[in-house]
Description:
Beta Polymerase, domain 2; alpha+beta; single chain; globular
Amino acid sequence: MLLQPYNTEWATHFNAIKTVLDNALQPLPIIVEHVGSTAIPLLAAKPIIDIDIVFNEATVNFSNIKSKLVSIGYYHNGNQGIVDREVFKRKLLAHHPILDTISHHLYVCSSNSNELQKHLTFRDHLRNNEADRTAYQALKLTISEAAKQDRKLYASLKETQATAFITKIISQYL
C-alpha cells in the first residue's frame, strides 16, 4: 500500500536515525528535524521518514557535514532542483543496522533556507490544525487512488495537485 495509516513507530524510527546522525556529526552544532507526513500524528503517509539536518552557515561549513555523512555511507546527490536543500542518499554497498533498514530521505538545509522554513511551517501547522490535516489526508488519499500504487505517478500527481493546498497554508505564515 502506497499510503499507510499513521504509525507511532515512525517517531521511533526517526529517533533511531537521529541518534546515529547526531553521533556521526559530533561536534558540529546541528539540529535534526523530522519533517514530512510521517512527522504529523494521525496523518496517513508513505512510510518514508523525511529528515532535515539544519546548520547555521555562520558557524558550520557544509563541506564538514558532507564529509561526515559520506563517512557513514551517504553520498551527496546535489539539490535535485530545489534551492537551499541538499540531498543525501545511501550508498548501495553501505551496511548500517539502522540507516539501511529504515526507509528515509535525508536533506541538509541551512537555518535560513526557504525550503526548511516551508517544511517546518507546513509540519507545525498540520500538527496543530485538525481540519487542515484531515483535508490534506483526503487529498493525498485521492491522489494515491489515482496513482494506483505507482510511487512515481503519485509523486507527480501530488506535485501538481497538492501544491496549491500546501502553498495556501505556508503563505499564511511566510
